[in-house]
Amino acid sequence: EVQYMESGGGLVQPGGSLRLSCAASGFTFSTYAMSWVRQAPGKGLQWVSTITGNGGRTNYVDSVKGRFTISRDNAKNTLYLQLDSLKTEDTAMYYCVKDRGSNSNYYSRRELGQGTQVTVSS
Length: 122
Known about the structure:
By secondary structure, this protein is mainly β. Helix content is 0%, strand content 46%. It has strands spanning 3-7, 10-12, 18-25, 34-39, 45-51, 58-60, 68-73, 78-83, 92-98, 116-120. A hairpin with a 5-residue loop joins strand 4 and strand 5.
């Protein structure tokens, strides 16, 4: 059974930083590209970032480029997302998931874990 366990969220002021982690299990982690998606209050899922299986390539939605950094540790089956220069519009529940591409419509809440809440507020 595929499982995702996200952690690291919290309340932070604008301009602050957080580091999210995702422990994945139930599949061969290193062979899958992985993504972070998020859901802001009252909105649908939004694709945020993807990293290839070996970590060699990354991709980001334009709104987070230069502020967020995705990485992975295949020895630990863990995915990370470093969030810097946070803005109020980054407030959302963040989820990790096997990559389905950059089209947010390809992701379903049914395949996600419990997520980790990021709240950016002064």
